[in-house]
Amino acid sequence: MSTYLRKFWKFIKRNETARGLLLVGIVILGALAVWGGVRLALNTEYPVLVVSSGSMCPPTNCVLPIGSLIIIRGQDPSTIVPAPPPNGSIIVFRPYVCEPDYLVVHRVINEVKDSNGYSFQTKGDGNGNPDSWDARCGTALTMISSSQVVGVYQGMIPIPYLGSAILGIRSFMYDDTTGQPRPEGILVIVILIIALFAFEVIEPSKKPKPEAATSEPDVQSVPTQA
């Protein structure tokens, strides 16, 4: 095994493109490991989200402006507090079970507990009426079951403009109506990859080649006599 490792390390040291790809792979694996640790610590699959609508931002008391980075924690349904603003718990949930990537962040204003567990009535602080969800997944809903809850809002990450930048990149890369990647977004990624490899190929050619050492004849001085 050590022989293969030495050969691999020699190859990495000689090849600049391979070094770049290795570095990118290490960064990606490190980011995935950190993200997995955060998900485990906060007990939810979406520990950090970006607010993309103004339903929680009424004119008088804006709680979650568009572009806010929010922290979510998975909690026991019994700890969720139903109450009018500003006291009710704010939760992130899936209103449509057939669309798991569609998430909503609203406040819990009422709850019902029965043999099936907890169900919650939600409402955006900036909306006039409680939430109601159409029957696109088979049944129209006015209450959200605890199984649809992703987590409970804990607070915001105070990094200015980061959430807005993420929303801008997402809108450029994906179509908000269909959720499919945009052709121009795919084109930009392809161009960046080609540029990376082109840079790695062209850059070594710009390095000055070592000049061959020129040997000078060994001239010895001969003493002269007058």
Give the gist of this structure.
By secondary structure, this protein is an alpha+beta fold.
Q: Could you describe the 3D structure shown?
A:
By secondary structure, this protein is of the alpha+beta class. The protein has helices spanning 2-14, 16-42, 162-173, 183-205, and strands spanning 48-50, 69-73, 90-93, 104-114, 117-123, 144-145, 149-156. The protein is elongated, with a radius of gyration of 30 Å. Among the domains are: 7-42; 48-158, Umud Fragment, subunit A. The longest helix has 27 residues, at 16-42. Helix 1 (2-14) crosses helix 2 (16-42).
Radius of gyration using CA atoms only? 30 Å
The CATH superfamily of the domain at 48-158 turns out to be Umud Fragment, subunit A
Number of helices: 4
What is CATH's topology name of the domain at 48-158?
Umud Fragment, subunit A
- Uncertain residue ranges: 221-226
Give the beta-strand count: 7
Name the helix and strand elements from N-terminus to C-terminus, one letter apiece: HHEEEEEEEHH
Strand order of the largest sheet: 1-2-7-3-4-5-6
**Structural classification:** alpha+beta
Secondary structure: helix percent? 25-40%
CATH architecture name of the domain at 48-158: Ribbon
Q: What's the story with the biggest beta sheet?
A: 7 strands, antiparallel
Strand content: 15-25%
- Categorize the overall geometry: elongated
